[in-house]
Amino acid sequence: MPGQVGTSGAKISPPITALPADLAGTISSNVERRKPGWPFVAGLFAAMLCFGASEARAQAAGPVVVVKPVLVQDVAPGAEFVGRVEPVNAVDIRARIEGFVADRPFDEGRLVIEGQELFLIEKATYEAALSSARASLEGAQATLLDAEGRLQRNQELRRTQAASQAALDEAQANRDTARAAVGVAEAAARQAELNLGYTTIKAPFSGRIGVAAFSVGSLVGPSSGALARIVQIDPVRVVFSVSDRTILDLRAAAGNASKDELAREYRPTLRLSNGSEYALKGEIEFAGNELDARTGTLPVRARFANPDAVLIPGQFVTVVVRPVEGQRRPVVPLGAVQLDREGRFVLLLDGDNKVILRRIRTGSQIGQNWTVEEGLIGGESLIVQGAQNARPGSVVRVIPSAGAPATERSK
Question: Which of 407, 408, 396 is closest to 65 using CA atoms?
C-alpha cells in the first residue's frame, strides 16, 4: 500500500496489520522450541560458581616458588694443580734362587697382606743342600777339635823339650786351618739355609698384587724377571708441580714463610675426573729440592689415606690447595640475588611461608655462587625460582624442586 503524506509534507509509513493466525502460530511454536530449559540454566550457573571458587582459592594460595637452604662452605681462595696418584711403596716380586714353581697361593688382582705367601719353589734340592752343608760343618768342627788337641799336646811336650819347635808350629798351623774350615762350613750352611728360605716368596708389605707372570710348574730364577708386582694403595701419594711464581706468591701471603711452614699452613684436597670431591683431606709431605729446568716447576708430594681404594696409582686428579684455617661463608646461587637502587638482596621465607626481603653484602664469586659477607648466617630458606612472582609480605606455595608436585611447606 502506498504511503500517505501528512500535512507537514512528511511521508507516513503504512500501519502494521495483524499476521494471519496460522503464520503467528508457527512462529510462536519455533520460539518455544529454541528457549533453553531450566536444567541447562542451573548447570551453567553451578559451573560459574565452581570456577569462581577455584579461582578464589588459587589467588588465596599465592604463587608457587622453589626454595633451598642457604649453605655454608669454605670459601678460602685456593690454587688448583693437575696431580697424579702414585704408590708410597711398589715392588716387583722376583725369585732369588732357581727352581720350579710348586704353588702360587694368591688370587691375582686381590689385596695381599704383609708376610702372605705368594710363590712356593720346589724345596727338595735346597733341603738336600742344607743337609750336606750341615754335615760338612760337623766334619770341620771335628777336625778343629782334633787339631786343638794336637796343639795342646805339642805345647806340653815343648815345655819339657820332648818336641821340637817345628812340630809345635805345624800343630798350631793345623789348628788355625781347621778353625778357618769351620768358618767356611758355617757360611756354607748359612747360605744353604737362606736358599731354602728363598723357596718361599712372601709379600714385603700389604697392597694389591697384579697378574702373575709365571704359573705353577714354570722354571724361575734371578734372571726370569718379575714374577708379579705389588703396589701399596693405602695410603697413596699425589705428586703435582708448582711453579716458582706460585711458591713466591704463597710465601708472600704467608708472611715470607719457608717451604716447610707452607706445607703446614696449606691443606690439599682432591677433585676426581668425574667432578666429584674426594672425601678425605691430605697433607703435604715434602717438596722437591730443586726446580725442573725445563718447566720451571717444583714437584710436591701429598699423602692421602685411601681405605676404599678410590685412588688408583697412575690416576690423574685435580689437587686443590687451600689454607688450613678456612673461611666459612654462606653461599647463594647467582640467580637468587637481585639488585635495586639500594644494592643486592635476596628473598627468603619465614615459618609461615611469608616472603621476606633481606639485604646482603656479597663477596667473591665462586663458580655459580656468590659468597655472602653480611646478611645471612646459613640455613635460611632461600627462594631460587619464582622470585619474579613473589612480593615481600605475601604468602606463597613451596615446592622442594622443579617438577615436584606443589605442596605447602610444613610449618
Answer: 396
Place of cell 639500594: 342
Q: Where are the alpha helices (DSSP H) in 254-371?
A: 259-265
Cell digits for 393? 609480605
* CA atoms of 228 and 388, how far apart (whole Å): 65
CB 330 within 8 A of CB 378: yes
Q: Compute the radius of gyration of the chain from its Cα atoms.
A: 49
Residue type, 339: L
Specify whether 362 is located in the same domain as 389.
yes
Residues 207 and 281 both lie in one domain: no
Residues 299, 237 share a domain: yes
- The secondary element (H helix, E strand) that includes residue 402 is none
Q: Name the pTM for this structure.
A: 0.57
- 49-90 pLDDT, tens digit per residue, is 544 444 445 445 578 888 889 988 877 767 889 999 999 999
**What is the residue range of 253's domain?**
79-87+233-323
Q: Which helix (H) or strand (E) holds 120?
A: strand 117-121
Residue 33 is assigned to a structural domain of this protein: no
How do beta strands 397-399 and 64-69 pair? Answer: parallel
* Count of domains observed in the chain: 4
Length of the chain: 411
C-alpha cell at 400: 622442594
